[in-house]
Design a protein that fits this description.
The chain has 22 helices and 26 strands. The protein is of the alpha/beta class. The strands form six sheets. The protein has a six-stranded mixed β-sheet with strand order 1-2-3-4-6-9. A six-stranded mixed β-sheet has the order 10-15-14-13-11-12, sandwiched between helices. A four-stranded mixed β-sheet has the order 8-7-5-16, with no helix packed on it. Helix 7 runs parallel beside helix 9, helix 16 crosses helix 20 and helix 18 crosses helix 19. It is globular and about 85 Å long. The chain binds beta-D-glucopyranose. The site of beta-D-glucopyranose (BGC) has 8 residues, from loops. Beta-D-glucopyranose binds next to loops.
Length: 766
């Protein structure tokens, strides 16, 4: 393997990174070297990428150097004379994205573990699970020679059609922030850096490279920045990746107020900021804004930066600051430490982590005595994805894993009797359909999905006669480069016919029908849920998919996943539906976040729109009761502790997620009817067992951002603490008083939208 830390004899007189103070190293760098350090080395793209994209991105540097870790996304320039090695940057977020076979030599492979997608991980509501995934991910990155993992991604689920929602955690910034923090902690505990991305308000793929996101300061602060703030303050990521889009008129990578005032001055970020790949259009503005590194980088950017320093458009001090930020991170990197990576991570151990995590985030939506499946049940498994499972989304978030466990395999391994005749037909059908469809044009043009295999009444009746239960799997995929079409929210005619034929046949014989949803994005469920007996939302569960789904269907693992994003009844119910992806709709130049702070449950609850399944929802095979919710005081004196007791009131062991929502008095800024301010998952509780959980409320939890004063304020009055099993299943509540208005924090008056936005407001709002 190639470790680019070399210190040739001729360079001994120059100050060496790690030996001399960083400022001396910076002082010894030539302008050319500094400009190269702040610009990446170009990119080697996978062979599937069309030439049009390849030619645009490839630089002479990428050809010149033999870059280590094939398939990584970016590299930094090495300067052997100063003891500065090259760092390897690799995607993200479902696992290490590198090339599995190099130079057509399969005697040594570089497969990576495909973990469950972020959407599933957030549904665990358990940061410790996410941290364990992070540790395994970090170990893998370390052993494959990666210095910075380009993950986690924590943009907000603003609209269900965003093609990259699978990479993101939640519609709620508290969940997104804490999940991202857990991932950063896990990965960085292994000595590898992270890059939290995409900073910020990059919530669609349509025209992502240039669209202007127009959003109020309040929505930015409370919804879109909040998760990043939590991750930065709690977990100290080595790097931040600015996003492709503009915010309020300016590319994020070119906004000093975003990258310096907010990120560093207000939040205390100490690492370096890199662009998203080819993001922004002005290297000078990027350098000045505090976007320390441009990725993947090209010679033109290097030359522009050199010219700008010479002509005074970039101060020497500014470039030195950016160089210093980068060198401080290089000092921590495995490359700098000369880590002799093995290319042999413990994939076996990581597969177990992936399987466990997957079971923890699946959400049981419906169960009319259909699940868990009894031992040795005869199962008729319908649906293409029962035999062709989707383990993760597409694009830079795709992983090259060694294998994936199909659902049919998982069910057989769990001891179920699968209808072999059906299996054979599906396999044959899928093979033929794949052979006949047009080939993938690469990364950004995936192949068409295969239509569901038709099942007629006669076939459905035969299967019902020969089996005890039907499992129908429905799949959806999406990815980088495109949003989903609105029609993708609805089931196809073939999917609807499949459910109907199977449900009619099995129900006629008194047998149950279970649907497994193998997708990462909301689809219509309300229109067909009454036709089936059980629905498990398995998400895109990573390479151990079949085993993990079987673990939950069989009851080996109690389903303890809860929705971290609302599932709407209809697409038109989504608060951003009327103005996504912006105008003009076929080529959006601008998207206005007219719904303001009313994203997700904040909207559905405040405006009384009933979702199909609400935020926080999910069933177990057991039941839980909530008692003894107590506050440490009935008036707020700077801090308040909330305790509540959860008891397993059912017959099998399980875990519950306890959610704390807060409702504020109505005499201040307009507020959502309630907001999530705390959450915790119980340990595995045996029937009858209890656990007391405790939450702390701080002044910041009471406050909202007032753009008039650029400060976080909490109105005086009565607050209600609502403890529940979902946002609409509140089991206990208690109130406390805040005697007088609090100004919790004063921030900088930045990030204005230019002209005011006519934002959605509740009728009683001010
Ligand atoms: C994506 C990033 C990714 C980068 C490098 C970009 O297209 O938006 O998330 O890290 O490519 O692959």
């Amino acid at each position: 393997m190639l470790v680019l830390l070399t210190t040739p004899a001729f360079s001994q007189s120059a100050p060496q990174l790690g030996k001399a103070p960083v400022k001396d190293v910076v002082g010894a760098m030539t302008l050319q070297e500094k400009a190269q350090l702040v610009v990446g080395m170009g990119m080697q793209l996978p062979p599937s990428v069309p030439d049009s994209i390849r030619n645009r991105m490839k630089t002479s540097d990428a050809k010149k150097y033999s870059l280590p870790v094939a398939g990584a996304a970016g590299w930094t320039h090495p300067f052997p004379r100063l003891g500065i090695p090259s760092m390897v940057l690799s995607d993200g977020p479902a696992g290490v994205r590198i090339q599995p076979i190099r130079n057509q030599d399969s005697s040594q492979t570089y497969y990576a573990t495909a973990f469950p997608v972020a959407r599933l991980l957030a549904s665990t509501w358990d940061p410790s699970v996410v941290q364990d995934v992070g540790k395994a991910y970090g170990e893998e990155a370390h052993e494959y020679g990666v210095d910075v993992a380009l993950t986690p991604a924590l943009n907000i689920h603003r609209n269900p059609l965003n093609g990259r929602n699978f990479e993101y955690y939640s519609e709620d910034p508290l969940i997104a922030g804490h999940m991202a923090a857990a991932m950063v902690e896990g990965i960085q505990s292994q000595g590898v850096g992270t890059s939290i991305k995409h900073f910020v308000a990059n919530n669609q793929e349509a025209n992502r490279n240039s669209v202007n996101t127009t959003v109020s300061e309040r929505a930015l602060r409370e919804i879109y920045l909040k998760g990043f703030e939590i991750a930065v303050k709690n977990a100290h990521p080595w790097t931040v990746m600015s996003s492709y889009n503009r915010v309020n008129g300016t590319y994020t990578s070119q906004r000093h107020d975003l990258l310096t005032t907010v990120l560093r001055d207000e939040w205390g970020f100490k690492g370096f900021v890199m662009t998203d790949w080819t993001g922004g259009d002005d290297p000078i503005a990027q350098m000045n804004a505090g976007n320390d590194m441009l990725q993947p980088g090209n010679d033109n950017q290097i030359n522009q930066i050199i010219d700008a320093v010479q002509s005074g458009k970039i101060d020497k001090e500014t470039l030195d600051r950016n160089v210093t930020n980068i060198l401080n991170i290089i000092l921590k990197s495995p490359a700098f430490k000369g880590y002799d990576y093995s290319n042999n991570p413990d994939l076996h151990a990581h597969a177990k982590v992936a399987r466990h995590a997957a079971t923890q985030g699946m959400v049981l939506l419906k169960n009319d005595n259909a699940l868990p499946l009894k031992k040795s049940t005869h199962i008729a498994a319908f649906g293409n994805t029962s035999y062709d499972i989707i383990i993760g989304g597409r694009g830079s978030g795709q992983v090259n894993q060694a294998y994936k466990v199909q659902l049919n395999q998982g069910l057989s391994d769990a001891g179920y009797n699968l209808d072999q005749y059906l299996k054979k037909d599906y396999k044959k059908y899928i093979k033929k359909a794949k052979a006949n469809r047009p080939k993938s044009q690469g990364f950004f043009s995936p192949p068409e999905p295969i239509a569901e295999m038709p099942i007629n009444t006669q076939r459905a009746n035969e299967e019902a006669t020969n089996n005890d239960v039907a499992v129908i799997t429905l799949g959806r995929n999406s990815g980088e480069g495109a949003d989903r079409a609105q029609s993708d929210f609805y089931l196809t005619g073939k999917e609807q016919s499949l459910i109907k034929a199977v449900a009619d046949a099995f129900h006629a014989q008194g047998k149950k029908v279970v649907v497994v949803l193998n997708l990462a994005e909301p689809v219509d469920i309300a229109s067909w849920r009454d036709d089936v007996d059980g629905i498990l939302l398995a998400w895109q569960p990573g390479q151990e998919a079949g085993h993990a789904i079987a673990d939950v269907l069989s009851g080996k693992v109690d389903p303890s996943g809860r929705l971290a994003t609302t599932l709407p009844v209809d697409y038109s119910d989504v608060p951003s539906a009327s103005h996504f992806p912006g105008t003009p709709a076929n080529d959006p130049k601008q998207v206005i976040y007219k719904e303001g702070i009313y994203t997700g449950y904040r909207y559905y609850d405040t405006f009384d729109v009933k979702p199909a399944y609400e935020f926080g929802y999910g069933l177990s095979y057991t039941t839980f009761s909530f008692d003894n919710t107590k506050l440490s005081s009935s008036s707020f004196g700077g801090k308040l502790t909330v305790t509540t007791q959860v008891t397993n009131s059912g017959n099998t062991a399980g875990k519950e997620v306890v959610q704390l929502y807060l409702s504020a008095p109505s005499n201040g800024l307009d507020k959502p009817s309630q907001e999530l301010k705390g959450f915790a998952k119980t340990k595995l509780l045996q029937p009858g067992a209890s656990q007391t959980l405790s939450f702390e409320l701080t002044p910041a939890d009471l406050a909202s951002f007032n753009p008039q004063t650029a400060s976080w304020e909490a109105a005086a009055g009565t607050y209600t603490v609502r403890i529940g099993a979902s946002s609409r299943d509140i089991r206990q509540s208690q109130t406390f008083k805040l005697d007088s208005k609090l100004t919790v924090e004063k921030d900088h008056d930045v990030l204005h939208p230019g002209s005011p936005i006519n934002e959605l407001k509740p009728k009683s709002g001010k």
